[in-house]
């Protein structure tokens, strides 16, 4: 009986050490590595839960994603209100859509299946904030120093996005359909519809900075960087590279037709390699 009890205790201990039975968050992934691969034992493991999140969650960080193909205006306005104004409640797109339908030009909204800047202004006024649509140059958009809703014409569609900021020749926007994206300055000016912007006037002490630029927004890779690293020389001796290339190539037996060669008329093996070149 003692042997059975000891055996059961050892089995329980091994199982307890091998498996983490504590409840883990939904976003936790179990990471396990062997501390010493020469000793195959359950107790010689390092385990820890690593919290991860889908890339899509970061892509839409701080953005209310549009629920319908025609609701970019309501989603953009919800994003701006939640991210820039210190309201007592956090709005949903449904809240804002209902408000736009109630205070906006309801019949025109239904007819065109979209919201206008005038509808936005009326709703924002109804909740006690000042706002307005303006027209200006690109320098005006940058110098006003606050997020704004801007209409763009992109990929054949008219669309509302939230301008977040400008840095080093790039314009960063919160797109209700695509998430946090950026455009080259020249490209943005090409698609910016009528140089129009919609601003909400908020006292400094009542502002939020959830739409401010951060490092994650600026993780784009420009063409020069791609070219530099995609075609960088390999850091290996040339003879080693030749050896790898020969091993991966096709071998063909050819007759030497060079009359000046010592091996003229003899058959030699040639390595046929496939090369790629950037057009």
From TrEMBL:
Coiled coil: none annotated. CDD domains: Peptidase_C39G. GO terms for cellular component: membrane. One of its GO terms (molecular function) is ATP binding. Pfam families: Peptidase_C39. Residues 66-199 form the Peptidase C39 domain. InterPro entries: Peptidase_C39. Signal peptide: none annotated. GO terms for biological process: proteolysis. This is Peptidase. It comes from Acinetobacter wanghuae.
């Amino acid at each position: 009986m003692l042997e059975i009890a000891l055996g059961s205790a050892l089995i329980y201990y091994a199982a307890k050490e091998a498996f983490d039975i504590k409840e883990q968050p939904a976003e936790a992934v179990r990471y396990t590595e062997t501390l010493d691969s020469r000793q195959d034992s359950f107790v010689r493991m390092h385990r820890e839960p690593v919290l991860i999140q889908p890339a899509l969650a970061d892509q839409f960080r701080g953005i209310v994603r549009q629920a319908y193909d025609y609701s970019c205006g309501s989603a953009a306005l919800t994003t701006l209100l939640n991210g820039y104004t210190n309201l007592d409640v956090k709005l949903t797109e449904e809240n804002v859509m209902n408000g736009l339908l109630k205070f906006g030009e309801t019949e025109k909204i239904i007819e065109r299946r979209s919201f206008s800047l005038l509808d936005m202004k009326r709703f924002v006024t109804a909740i006690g904030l000042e706002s307005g649509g303006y027209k200006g140059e690109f320098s005006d958009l940058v110098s006003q120093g606050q997020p704004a809703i801007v209409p763009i014409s992109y990929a054949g569609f008219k669309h509302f996005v939230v301008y977040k900021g400008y840095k080093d020749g790039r314009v960063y926007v919160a797109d209700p359909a695509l998430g946090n994206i950026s455009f080259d300055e020249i490209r943005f000016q090409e698609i910016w519809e009528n140089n129009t912007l919609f601003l909400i006037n908020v006292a400094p002490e009542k502002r939020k900075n959830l739409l401010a630029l951060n490092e994650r927004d600026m993780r784009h890779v420009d063409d020069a960087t791609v070219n530099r690293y995609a075609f960088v020389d390999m850091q290996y001796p040339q003879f080693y590279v030749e050896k790898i290339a020969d091993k991966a190539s096709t071998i063909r037996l050819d007759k030497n037709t060079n009359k000046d060669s010592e091996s003229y008329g003899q058959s030699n093996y040639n390595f046929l390699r496939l090369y790629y070149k950037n057009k």
